[in-house]
Amino acid sequence: MTEASILLLRACLALLAMPIYLLSFLGIWEPFCKKIFFPFFLEKLSVIHERKSKKQKQELFRNLIDFKSPSGELKLLEIGTGCGANFQFYPAGCKVTCTDISPNFQQGLSRSMNKNQHVHYEHFLVAAGEDLHQVPSGSVDAVVCTLVLCSVRDVNGTLKEVLRVLRPGGAFFFLEHVAADRSSWRYFWQQVCYPTWKLVFDGCCLTREIWKNLEQANFSDLNIQHTTVALPWTPIEPHIVGYAVK
Protein backbone atom coordinates (compact mmCIF):
# COMPACT_ATOMS: atom_id res chain seq x y z
CA MET A 1 0.00 0.00 0.00
CA THR A 2 2.78 2.41 0.91
CA GLU A 3 4.68 1.81 -2.36
CA ALA A 4 1.49 2.33 -4.35
CA SER A 5 0.82 5.56 -2.45
CA ILE A 6 4.34 6.79 -3.16
CA LEU A 7 4.01 6.06 -6.89
CA LEU A 8 0.60 7.75 -7.07
CA LEU A 9 1.81 10.87 -5.27
CA ARG A 10 4.98 10.96 -7.38
CA ALA A 11 2.80 10.97 -10.49
CA CYS A 12 0.70 13.84 -9.10
CA LEU A 13 3.83 15.85 -8.35
CA ALA A 14 5.20 15.12 -11.81
CA LEU A 15 1.96 16.43 -13.33
CA LEU A 16 2.36 19.67 -11.38
CA ALA A 17 5.94 19.95 -12.63
CA MET A 18 5.08 18.85 -16.18
CA PRO A 19 6.49 22.02 -17.85
CA ILE A 20 9.89 21.29 -16.29
CA TYR A 21 9.76 17.63 -17.35
CA LEU A 22 8.91 18.78 -20.88
CA LEU A 23 11.81 21.26 -20.92
CA SER A 24 14.07 18.48 -19.65
CA PHE A 25 12.89 16.16 -22.44
CA LEU A 26 13.71 18.88 -24.98
CA GLY A 27 17.19 19.36 -23.47
CA ILE A 28 16.44 22.91 -22.35
CA TRP A 29 16.01 22.56 -18.58
CA GLU A 30 19.46 21.26 -17.60
CA PRO A 31 21.54 24.11 -19.09
CA PHE A 32 19.01 26.68 -17.83
CA CYS A 33 19.04 25.09 -14.37
CA LYS A 34 22.83 24.97 -14.12
CA LYS A 35 23.49 28.48 -15.45
CA ILE A 36 20.55 30.51 -14.15
CA PHE A 37 17.94 28.83 -11.96
CA PHE A 38 20.06 26.80 -9.53
CA PRO A 39 22.69 29.52 -8.80
CA PHE A 40 19.82 31.97 -8.16
CA PHE A 41 17.90 29.45 -6.02
CA LEU A 42 21.00 28.37 -4.06
CA GLU A 43 21.91 31.95 -3.17
CA LYS A 44 18.38 32.54 -1.83
CA LEU A 45 18.30 29.19 0.00
CA SER A 46 21.73 29.87 1.50
CA VAL A 47 20.40 33.00 3.21
CA ILE A 48 17.55 31.03 4.82
CA HIS A 49 19.66 27.97 5.63
CA GLU A 50 22.38 30.19 7.07
CA ARG A 51 19.95 31.79 9.48
CA LYS A 52 18.52 28.44 10.57
CA SER A 53 21.87 26.62 10.89
CA LYS A 54 24.03 29.46 12.24
CA LYS A 55 24.45 28.00 15.73
CA GLN A 56 25.39 24.57 14.37
CA LYS A 57 27.94 26.10 12.01
CA GLN A 58 29.45 28.32 14.70
CA GLU A 59 29.87 25.29 16.94
CA LEU A 60 31.25 23.14 14.12
CA PHE A 61 33.76 25.58 12.66
CA ARG A 62 35.00 26.69 16.07
CA ASN A 63 37.19 23.56 15.92
CA LEU A 64 38.87 24.52 12.63
CA ILE A 65 41.64 26.36 14.42
CA ASP A 66 42.65 23.12 16.16
CA PHE A 67 43.82 21.69 12.83
CA LYS A 68 46.45 24.27 11.95
CA SER A 69 49.59 22.78 10.46
CA PRO A 70 52.79 22.63 12.59
CA SER A 71 53.88 25.84 10.82
CA GLY A 72 50.85 27.67 12.23
CA GLU A 73 49.06 28.01 8.89
CA LEU A 74 45.56 26.73 8.20
CA LYS A 75 45.14 25.64 4.58
CA LEU A 76 41.50 24.91 3.86
CA LEU A 77 39.82 23.39 0.82
CA GLU A 78 36.09 23.84 0.35
CA ILE A 79 34.23 21.40 -1.93
CA GLY A 80 31.18 22.90 -3.60
CA THR A 81 31.80 26.45 -2.44
CA GLY A 82 28.70 27.77 -4.20
CA CYS A 83 28.09 31.36 -3.10
CA GLY A 84 30.56 31.22 -0.20
CA ALA A 85 28.07 30.91 2.66
CA ASN A 86 30.72 29.45 5.01
CA PHE A 87 33.39 32.14 4.67
CA GLN A 88 32.13 34.13 7.66
CA PHE A 89 32.90 31.19 9.97
CA TYR A 90 36.52 30.66 8.89
CA PRO A 91 39.39 31.80 11.15
CA ALA A 92 41.18 35.03 10.24
CA GLY A 93 44.19 34.49 8.01
CA CYS A 94 43.31 30.99 6.85
CA LYS A 95 44.15 30.20 3.22
CA VAL A 96 41.14 28.95 1.27
CA THR A 97 41.00 27.09 -2.02
CA CYS A 98 37.46 27.15 -3.41
CA THR A 99 36.17 24.39 -5.68
CA ASP A 100 32.85 23.88 -7.42
CA ILE A 101 31.67 21.75 -10.30
CA SER A 102 29.94 24.85 -11.71
CA PRO A 103 31.57 28.20 -12.61
CA ASN A 104 28.13 29.86 -12.51
CA PHE A 105 28.25 31.03 -8.88
CA GLN A 106 30.90 33.69 -9.45
CA GLN A 107 28.64 36.68 -8.80
CA GLY A 108 27.45 35.48 -5.38
CA LEU A 109 30.92 34.17 -4.57
CA SER A 110 32.50 37.56 -5.30
CA ARG A 111 30.01 39.25 -2.95
CA SER A 112 30.89 36.79 -0.16
CA MET A 113 34.62 37.31 -0.71
CA ASN A 114 34.20 41.09 -0.47
CA LYS A 115 32.27 40.72 2.79
CA ASN A 116 34.81 38.34 4.34
CA GLN A 117 38.23 39.85 3.77
CA HIS A 118 39.62 38.27 6.96
CA VAL A 119 40.18 35.15 4.80
CA HIS A 120 42.94 34.77 2.20
CA TYR A 121 41.54 33.31 -1.03
CA GLU A 122 44.15 31.32 -2.93
CA HIS A 123 42.41 29.64 -5.88
CA PHE A 124 39.04 28.86 -7.45
CA LEU A 125 39.02 25.49 -9.20
CA VAL A 126 36.24 24.14 -11.39
CA ALA A 127 36.25 20.56 -10.15
CA ALA A 128 33.90 17.77 -9.09
CA GLY A 129 34.22 16.38 -5.59
CA GLU A 130 35.15 12.98 -7.02
CA ASP A 131 38.05 14.42 -9.03
CA LEU A 132 40.27 16.93 -7.23
CA HIS A 133 43.38 16.05 -9.22
CA GLN A 134 44.40 19.74 -9.32
CA VAL A 135 44.94 19.58 -5.54
CA PRO A 136 48.17 17.82 -4.44
CA SER A 137 47.92 14.88 -2.05
CA GLY A 138 48.36 15.71 1.64
CA SER A 139 48.39 19.45 0.92
CA VAL A 140 45.53 20.81 3.08
CA ASP A 141 44.82 20.91 6.81
CA ALA A 142 41.02 20.88 6.53
CA VAL A 143 38.35 20.13 3.96
CA VAL A 144 34.86 21.64 4.28
CA CYS A 145 31.73 20.35 2.57
CA THR A 146 28.21 21.64 3.33
CA LEU A 147 25.05 20.71 1.42
CA VAL A 148 27.12 19.11 -1.33
CA LEU A 149 27.27 15.34 -0.75
CA CYS A 150 23.55 15.19 -1.59
CA SER A 151 24.34 15.92 -5.23
CA VAL A 152 27.80 14.51 -5.99
CA ARG A 153 27.77 11.58 -8.41
CA ASP A 154 29.77 9.33 -6.07
CA VAL A 155 29.82 9.95 -2.30
CA ASN A 156 32.47 7.29 -1.62
CA GLY A 157 34.66 8.62 -4.44
CA THR A 158 34.40 12.13 -3.00
CA LEU A 159 35.40 10.91 0.47
CA LYS A 160 38.40 9.11 -1.04
CA GLU A 161 39.51 12.39 -2.60
CA VAL A 162 38.99 14.15 0.75
CA LEU A 163 41.29 11.64 2.44
CA ARG A 164 43.86 11.98 -0.34
CA VAL A 165 44.18 15.78 -0.19
CA LEU A 166 44.19 15.96 3.63
CA ARG A 167 47.50 15.82 5.46
CA PRO A 168 47.76 13.16 8.20
CA GLY A 169 45.93 14.57 11.22
CA GLY A 170 43.84 16.91 9.05
CA ALA A 171 40.05 17.00 9.31
CA PHE A 172 36.96 16.90 7.12
CA PHE A 173 34.12 19.18 8.30
CA PHE A 174 30.59 18.52 7.05
CA LEU A 175 26.97 19.64 7.38
CA GLU A 176 24.62 17.73 5.09
CA HIS A 177 20.92 17.07 4.73
CA VAL A 178 20.18 13.35 4.78
CA ALA A 179 17.43 10.74 4.68
CA ALA A 180 14.97 10.79 7.56
CA ASP A 181 14.28 7.74 9.71
CA ARG A 182 12.84 5.07 7.40
CA SER A 183 9.79 4.52 9.60
CA SER A 184 8.82 8.21 9.61
CA TRP A 185 6.31 10.21 7.56
CA ARG A 186 9.16 12.56 6.72
CA TYR A 187 10.95 9.71 4.90
CA PHE A 188 7.70 8.84 3.11
CA TRP A 189 7.47 12.40 1.77
CA GLN A 190 11.16 12.38 0.83
CA GLN A 191 10.47 9.32 -1.32
CA VAL A 192 7.45 11.03 -2.91
CA CYS A 193 9.40 14.19 -3.74
CA TYR A 194 12.62 12.43 -4.77
CA PRO A 195 12.38 12.28 -8.62
CA THR A 196 10.92 15.75 -9.14
CA TRP A 197 13.16 17.35 -6.51
CA LYS A 198 16.25 15.78 -8.13
CA LEU A 199 15.25 17.10 -11.55
CA VAL A 200 14.35 20.61 -10.40
CA PHE A 201 17.31 21.10 -8.05
CA ASP A 202 20.21 19.94 -10.22
CA GLY A 203 20.66 16.37 -9.00
CA CYS A 204 20.00 16.88 -5.27
CA CYS A 205 19.13 13.48 -3.71
CA LEU A 206 16.81 13.45 -0.69
CA THR A 207 17.31 9.92 0.63
CA ARG A 208 21.07 9.49 0.94
CA GLU A 209 22.23 7.99 4.24
CA ILE A 210 25.53 9.82 4.12
CA TRP A 211 26.48 8.92 7.69
CA LYS A 212 26.93 5.32 6.50
CA ASN A 213 29.44 6.42 3.83
CA LEU A 214 31.35 8.37 6.48
CA GLU A 215 31.37 5.39 8.84
CA GLN A 216 32.78 3.16 6.10
CA ALA A 217 35.47 5.63 4.96
CA ASN A 218 38.99 5.23 6.35
CA PHE A 219 38.95 8.09 8.85
CA SER A 220 40.77 7.49 12.13
CA ASP A 221 38.13 9.36 14.13
CA LEU A 222 34.54 10.36 13.32
CA ASN A 223 32.52 12.88 15.32
CA ILE A 224 28.96 12.98 13.98
CA GLN A 225 25.63 14.23 15.23
CA HIS A 226 22.14 13.82 13.78
CA THR A 227 20.24 17.07 14.00
CA THR A 228 17.39 19.01 12.41
CA VAL A 229 17.59 22.35 10.64
CA ALA A 230 14.21 24.07 10.86
CA LEU A 231 13.14 24.40 7.21
CA PRO A 232 9.35 23.87 7.45
CA TRP A 233 7.50 22.50 4.43
CA THR A 234 10.70 21.19 2.86
CA PRO A 235 11.96 17.58 2.71
CA ILE A 236 15.51 18.57 3.77
CA GLU A 237 15.12 19.12 7.53
CA PRO A 238 17.13 16.07 8.76
CA HIS A 239 20.87 16.83 8.81
CA ILE A 240 24.16 15.42 10.01
CA VAL A 241 26.94 17.66 11.31
CA GLY A 242 30.46 16.91 12.49
CA TYR A 243 34.06 16.30 11.50
CA ALA A 244 36.27 13.33 10.70
CA VAL A 245 40.03 13.11 11.22
CA LYS A 246 42.46 11.47 8.80
TrEMBL record:
The gene is Mettl7a. CDD domains: AdoMet_MTases. One of its GO terms (molecular function) is S-adenosylmethionine-dependent methyltransferase activity. PANTHER family: METHYLTRANSFERASE LIKE 7A, METHYLTRANSFERASE LIKE 7B. It holds the Pfam family Methyltransf_11. Keywords: Membrane, Transmembrane, Transmembrane helix. This is MET7A protein. Residues 77-174 form the Methyltransferase type domain. The chain crosses the membrane at residues 7-29.
